[in-house]
Amino acid sequence: MRVIFRMPFKREVEVKGVKTVKQLAEELNFSLESHLVLRGGKMLTPDEALKEDDVVEVLSAISGG
Amino acid sequence: MRCRRCGDKAEIYLKRHNAAFCNDCFQVYYSEQVRKNIRREKMFGSKDRVLVVVSGGKDSMALWHKLLKEGYDVTAMYINLGIGDYSDRSQEIVERFSEEYEAPLIVRNIEKDYGFNIPRLAREIRRSTCSLCGTIKRYLFNKVALDGGFDVVATGHNLDDEAATLFGNVLSWQEGYLARQSPVLPSTHPKLVKKVKPLFTLTERENLAYVLFNGISFIHEECPHALGASSILYKEVLNQLEEASPGTKQRFLTNFLKKGRKNFEACSETPDLRECSICGQVTTAEVCSFCRLRQMAEKKKMKADLWAQESENPEQ
């Protein structure tokens, strides 16, 4: 599955064998308290099932200043 | 997960409320939070003129949109701080929103209107860019609000901002700052406009969800000067605590406001306020910090011009 991080910098990673949004966050070590996960522009809850051919976006909500 | 209110498929889960919401019901939750904050903290009423300060980021864009939707008399103010492409891109976003929603907008440009460049001046006088920005923004929020006859200035500070500020102030026991931290800063002088934070119980993540659900454009990237800021580290630490114990951030802040802050009131000094001898804005000194910055910028510019003249005509 292709995972695209948008903020603060764009980067992409490939992940295999991840079944839910919660597992994806654990695998890639980001907090669901400060990030939103989207597929096809729709937000996903932590229990949402993910497939190998999915493209998901991870948006960080943290800003400084 | 199913939406707690209507039972439809949920799109967002809020762990601290143990509740998931669909798009429509999230909007209801968000509106209720903003309305409750405005009413309970007596921030402003339907007849008040509100100046909402916007940066183009998700929090201030969410606030602007929400206050317009709620029917308040809102005018936005954007300050172009001259931080390269970042400032120009955020100004574009704000101007596009203003056109789309036919929402009044005041734009100030530090370099064009006041003649100084913040990153350059910060280097020249050896102060951090963020501290200069803070001084300039605070000055202009109040000046524009006062000159325009606004009753209140509203900012997009969220729960994470407020909890991180509180955390930082506790770590170094900043008694004076602790005494003053509040979602409402009342006017303490006829020339100081009241300041309010209607989003102080909503997280950054909830504001991000709000702008995404409503298709509101916002600037994704961070101000280049904010990268590595200690506030970001504090937010990450608080989010770790939040994951282990949902509701920690809100408890930390709201219990401080209810129970903790009053214990610091004795530490709050009432400063001797007067009017700046140059611009007339409220200050504790003879000349306000904004006018002092302008004087420093002018001196630096005169020196640079003189040096340029001398190098052009070395014989004279």
From TrEMBL, chain A:
<dbReference type="InterPro" id="IPR016155">
    <property type="entry name" value="Mopterin_synth/thiamin_S_b"/>
</dbReference>
<dbReference type="Pfam" id="PF02597">
    <property type="entry name" value="ThiS"/>
</dbReference>
<protein>
    <submittedName>
        <fullName>Sulfur carrier protein</fullName>
    </submittedName>
</protein>
<dbReference type="InterPro" id="IPR012675">
    <property type="entry name" value="Beta-grasp_dom_sf"/>
</dbReference>
<dbReference type="InterPro" id="IPR003749">
    <property type="entry name" value="ThiS/MoaD-like"/>
</dbReference>
From TrEMBL, chain B:
<feature type="binding site">
    <location>
        <position position="3"/>
    </location>
    <ligand>
        <name>Zn(2+) 1</name>
    </ligand>
</feature>
<protein>
    <submittedName>
        <fullName>Uncharacterized protein (TIGR00269 family)</fullName>
    </submittedName>
</protein>
<feature type="binding site">
    <location>
        <position position="291"/>
    </location>
    <ligand>
        <name>Zn(2+) 2</name>
    </ligand>
</feature>
<feature type="binding site">
    <location>
        <position position="22"/>
    </location>
    <ligand>
        <name>Zn(2+) 1</name>
    </ligand>
</feature>
<keyword id="KW-0547">Nucleotide-binding</keyword>
<keyword id="KW-0460">Magnesium</keyword>
<dbReference type="InterPro" id="IPR011063">
    <property type="entry name" value="TilS/TtcA_N"/>
</dbReference>
<dbReference type="InterPro" id="IPR054306">
    <property type="entry name" value="TtuA-like_LIM_N"/>
</dbReference>
<dbReference type="GO" id="GO:0005524">
    <property type="term" value="F:ATP binding"/>
</dbReference>
<dbReference type="Pfam" id="PF01171">
    <property type="entry name" value="ATP_bind_3"/>
</dbReference>
<dbReference type="GO" id="GO:0002144">
    <property type="term" value="C:cytosolic tRNA wobble base thiouridylase complex"/>
</dbReference>
<feature type="domain" description="tRNA(Ile)-lysidine/2-thiocytidine synthase N-terminal">
    <location>
        <begin position="50"/>
        <end position="222"/>
    </location>
</feature>
<dbReference type="InterPro" id="IPR014729">
    <property type="entry name" value="Rossmann-like_a/b/a_fold"/>
</dbReference>
<keyword id="KW-0067">ATP-binding</keyword>
<dbReference type="InterPro" id="IPR035107">
    <property type="entry name" value="tRNA_thiolation_TtcA_Ctu1"/>
</dbReference>
<feature type="binding site">
    <location>
        <position position="288"/>
    </location>
    <ligand>
        <name>Zn(2+) 2</name>
    </ligand>
</feature>
<feature type="binding site">
    <location>
        <position position="25"/>
    </location>
    <ligand>
        <name>Zn(2+) 1</name>
    </ligand>
</feature>
<keyword id="KW-0411">Iron-sulfur</keyword>
<dbReference type="GO" id="GO:0002143">
    <property type="term" value="P:tRNA wobble position uridine thiolation"/>
</dbReference>
<feature type="binding site">
    <location>
        <position position="276"/>
    </location>
    <ligand>
        <name>Zn(2+) 2</name>
    </ligand>
</feature>
<dbReference type="GO" id="GO:0046872">
    <property type="term" value="F:metal ion binding"/>
</dbReference>
<keyword id="KW-0479">Metal-binding</keyword>
